[in-house]
Design a protein that fits this description.
heterodimer, A: alpha/beta, 6-stranded mixed sheet, 4-stranded antiparallel sheet, 10 strands, 32% helix, globular, B: Alpha-Beta Plaits, 11 helices, elongated
Chain lengths: 229, 301
């Protein structure tokens, strides 16, 4: 699903953000990308959506070579990828339903598709009862669930979660990770960047650890040592 | 998994809905922009109607600036005059040609001097040649038409109110140039305002744009709501301008009594052609300005 080969990203402001990174993630895998702030976690995820272009190396997503991809092809790549961030980015003047439907509307999905897919996505994150609520009426955890529903509604092959629990309390964080795991069990590949060691250690999934832009550890059923967080 | 089919109708509805949300979100900026578009189109329309009114007024006044009179050579008989009449009707700027017999000419001259001076008795015979009255398509065509006619072998003299025609044409051109210049200046102001309104919308919608880009919207999908916004500025500005012009005309007709001014105002009717042109100008101004702004401000990412 994801292949990075000798990837270096240099923003030109000091040390490279990523240095000669090699990584392969198979279809339906769940991977925690861990490491301290500035280790290169977000850069690694942005490579996959082509928000960042590597200085060297190659990136493949779902069989597509991302680095050489024409700009006109990038939207088609992104329709295969769902994204969730720490800053939740919900539209404050739209309801939960409208926020989720927005992702479909911008890609020109028909009304019938929207009516069919939005309830499914909201149901998956248990937010259907609050479909008419506005973001200001929701807790942090609920907002993140809506953001997750928005990422899921396009039925992505790959889900990227960049510190999705960064602003949430432990209970809400646990709920979000359990949701991501449930989504993963349905076949979606999930890459979650985090520095929350308690979550990583609680769920024991594959762990890829970054330090100073290099992969220093890649373990199946790994842990995240507290002192590195 | 991955993507759904594209419904262009849904996408169009999306663009217009998002544009409408933007217009409502920045109410004051929207109002200022729509008013400026209305002012540009309103001024353009007002000058166009004024020119139309002025032309009609001059015609009503009897100046008949689009007419000229051809006096034939004395030896040209009625057959020659009739033949020339047929030839002249074929010229593109000519609308109508009327034959004036030398006797009719004398009768008209007699009417001019009145019965106190019996011209025929004084002269003994009719010295006038046959004549042709030519009506051109517009006063602007008269000079060109006169130049063609003067070259014809049977034509002795071509008479028309040359100075008045030239003055009128010059005045119309000056009014048109002035109006066009002023409209262009206002159009630039409207462009700057629309550009600024789009910039404001972009800033207000930066989260939407980020989400759109991340879920796979093409760069034109991101730009289109802003272009639709410009289109709506044009639609509302155009409607406002037409309403203002119609309102002012109605007010004038209610206030003015019968006379030259009222006659001119009555001639300034807003026909279907005028409405179409004004509306096209407004929508074009809004859409083109917004497209340029969107192209400059929204880049592929």
């Amino acid at each position: 699903m994801v292949v990075l080969r000798d990837v270096t990203v240099d923003y030109g402001n000091g040390a490279p953000a990523l240095q000669r990174v090699n990584l392969t993630v198979e279809k339906s895998e769940f991977v925690f990308v861990v490491g301290p702030t500035g280790a290169g976690k977000s850069t690694l995820l942005k490579l996959l959506t082509r928000e960042v272009i590597p200085t060297e190396g190659q990136v493949w997503v779902a069989g597509r070579e991302v680095t050489q991809m024409k700009l006109s092809q990038v939207p088609h790549l992104r329709r295969l990828i769902g994204t969730v961030f720490q800053d939740i980015l919900l539209l404050p003047d739209r309801t939960v339903w409208e926020n989720v439907a927005f992702a479909l509307r911008v890609t020109g999905a028909s009304s019938a598709t929207i009516l069919r897919e939005v309830p499914k996505a909201l149901e998956m994150v248990s937010m259907l009862p609050k479909a008419k609520a506005f973001p200001r009426e929701l807790s942090g955890g609920e907002k993140q669930k809506v953001a997750l529903a928005r990422a899921l509604v396009i039925r992505p092959l790959l889900l990227l979660a960049d510190e999705p629990t960064g602003n949430l309390d432990p209970v809400a964080s646990q709920e979000i990770v359990e949701l991501l795991l449930r989504i993963n069990r349905q076949g979606t590949t999930v890459l979650m960047a985090t520095h929350d060691w308690t979550l990583v250690n609680a769920y024991r999934q594959r762990v890829v650890e970054l330090q100073d832009g290099r992969i220093v550890r890649d373990e199946l059923r790994g842990v995240f040592r507290r002192e590195l967080a | 998994m991955g993507c759904f089919g594209v419904s262009w109708l849904s996408l169009l509805a999306f663009f217009l809905t998002e544009a409408w949300i933007n217009l409502r979100r920045h109410g004051v900026a929207t109002l200022a922009t729509v008013l400026t578009v209305a002012l540009v189109v309103g001024l353009w329309g007002a000058f166009a109607l004024l020119v139309k009114g002025a032309q009609r007024w001059l015609i009503w006044e009897g100046a008949k600036l689009e007419r000229l009179c051809i006096f034939l050579k004395p030896q040209a008989d009625e057959q020659v005059a009739r033949h020339l009449q047929t030839q002249l009707r074929k010229l593109p700027p000519v609308v109508a040609v009327r034959f004036v017999h030398r006797d009719e000419g004398l009768r008209r001259l007699q009417q001019l001097f009145g019965d106190s001076v019996p011209l025929k008795d004084l002269i003994g015979h009719n010295p006038l040649p046959h004549a042709l009255e030519v009506t051109c398509r517009s006063p602007q065509d008269v000079a060109r038409c006169a130049a063609i006619l003067r070259k014809m072998p049977d034509v002795d003299e071509v008479a028309y109110p040359a100075a008045a025609v030239e003055r009128f044409v010059r005045l119309l051109q000056q009014v048109r140039w002035g109006a066009n210049g002023f409209s262009l200046l206002l159009a630039l102001v409207a462009f700057a305002l629309i550009h600024n309104a789009i910039r404001l919308s972009l800033y207000g919608r930066r989260n939407e744009i980020r989400i759109m880009q991340l879920v796979g919207a093409t760069v034109w999908t991101v730009r289109s709501p802003f272009i639709a916004e410009g289109f709506l500025y044009g639609v509302f500005g155009g409607l406002m301008a037409l309403a203002m012009l119609a309102g002012l005309r109605w007010l004038g007709l209610q206030t003015l009594e019968a006379g030259y001014l009222r006659g001119t105002l009555e001639a300034m009717a807003m026909g279907a052609d005028f409405i179409q042109q004004a509306f096209a100008l407004a929508v074009g101004l809004g859409t083109v300005s917004a497209t340029i702004a969107a192209l400059q401000l929204v880049k592929p990412q």
